[in-house]
Amino acid sequence: MIVHPIEPVFDRNSEILILGSFPSVKSREEGFFYGHKQNRFWKVVAAVFDEEVPKTIPEKKEFLIRNHIALWDVIHSCDISGSSDSSIKNVKANDLSTILDHTGIRKIFVNGRIAEKYYIKYSEKNTKIKAVCLPSTSPANAAFSADRLTDAWKIIKCDI
Questions:
Q1: What is the largest CA-CA distance in the chain?
Q2: CA quadruple 135, 137, 108, 150: dihedral positive or negative?
Q3: What would the pLDDT profile of 7-39 be if each residue is shown by its tens digit?
Q4: What is the set of domains in the chain, with CATH numbers?
Q5: What pTM does this model have?
Q6: d(Cα 37, Cα 21) in Å, to the nearest integer?
Q7: Pairwise CA distance, residues 69 & 20, whole Å
Q8: Which of 69, 77, 60, 87 has its CA nearest to residue 22?
């Protein structure tokens, strides 16, 4: 059983919440979300907001707060082999009220179908907010080019 090691990023001005499934091995090692260099999350959200790609953890946190984005994952703990989302078992969900009770979140987005699956199964009944599923920024989602991902993710800016 691996417990999620990364604290959520948000402040009282956060208006949208983006949820992944569970951090990859690389992200767990780095201690921050989307730490694998092949994951396109930071490139995509930077392009959506027409900003430079944040490189360091402090820059990434500042980017999120400046753009009213809260970021976390659906899963608090699970059994997982490496970084393989398909191997996830014995899920315990994060308590999203940690964020929702202290912000003005108006919309929840999930990064890919696996995050959507676990959000619907474990969180939606508690939040009573239907999440919008965006195409995964994972390198495993080879069907989506960076440009196509950016176009799909532009919806997050419309909701701020």
A1: 39
A2: negative
A3: 999 999 999 999 999 999 999 999 999 999 999
A4: 2-158 (3.40.470.10)
A5: 0.96
A6: 18
A7: 13
A8: 77
